[in-house]
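Annual report, structural modelling task.

Input specification for the phenylalanine complex:
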Amino acid sequence: MNQIQQIREEAIQAIESSQSLEEIKKVHVDFFAKKGKITSLMSQMRNLSPEERPVFGQQVNELKNELQQAYDAKLEVLNQAAMDQKLASEKIDLTLPGIDFSFGHVHPLMIVQREIEQIFMEMGYDVLEGDEVELDLYNFERANIPKDHPARDMQDTFYITDELLLRTHTTAIQMRALEANNGEIPIRVICPGKVYRKDDDDATHSHQFNQIEGLVVGHGVTLSDLKGTLELLAKRMFGQNRHIRFRPSYFQFTEPSVEVDVSCHMCDGEGCSVCKDTGYIEILGAGMVHPAVLEMAGFEDKTITGFAFGVGLERVAMLKYGIEDIRSFYTNDARFLKQFERFE
Ligand code: PHE
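The model returned the following structure:
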């Protein structure tokens, strides 16, 4: 009986002095668990006489119930305290300003490129890319511009070796496409990419810019097919009221060659500063693929003809978005670029 009283005092003392969940758990181990003091009291029963056993058992049970209650009450208090502490330390201040994530978006030139690609893909064209470092063969010779021909002066070139250069136009991709097709038709491709010319940089010139060129080859392809195609492009890019006009021009790889003007989207052809009071804006060069070009690429059937065109992406983007300096595309001023977020 003394022992019961002693354990009672010890346990109450241990429960009361517990300050944390760890401490109260230790009380559980010391008193209630399998090897705890209350359990060992029970095992002393077998040393008692049969008359003493029920009395002792009852006492131990009472002790157990009493201590369990004290233990549970304390556990609840400590649990609540731990929870309060956790809540206090993890407090979130919902009135603080949020973190400003800034996401990138598509570059204006890429917006225009994707738009043009989309227009032509809808008409069944494939998109072809090539290498920026190109052979003289595909950049010039196959385009009917032999070595030392004066037409090379139209495109001042960065040469790497006598035979290797930075492509001056994406026409090089088209020349490869012609060769790869080896006389097979139809060909319907558009070729976007960076091109390089030894120009001095200013508001309208850049030593590196982007082109997107098109090539169609088939039986009886005509200049009016070219006109219809480019008119559709002009309407999709600059509005349904646009029309185009052809002016005679010169390219070594097309015959006839034309310069293509679009009626001004700013003044509707009335005359304004954008079109320099002419009502028209020059946007691209085009023409019927020169027979010599087809022949060099292995096309023998004379009923096979083709058209080609080439447009500068920067020029289209500048007209479309009213950008005045071509260098804005490359200097990466975030304030400039951010304006195009909404056009994606
Ligand atoms: N390759 C020409 C240029 O870079 C553009 C062009 C392409 C002209 C196709 C006619 C036909 O200026």
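Residues 2-90 form one domain.
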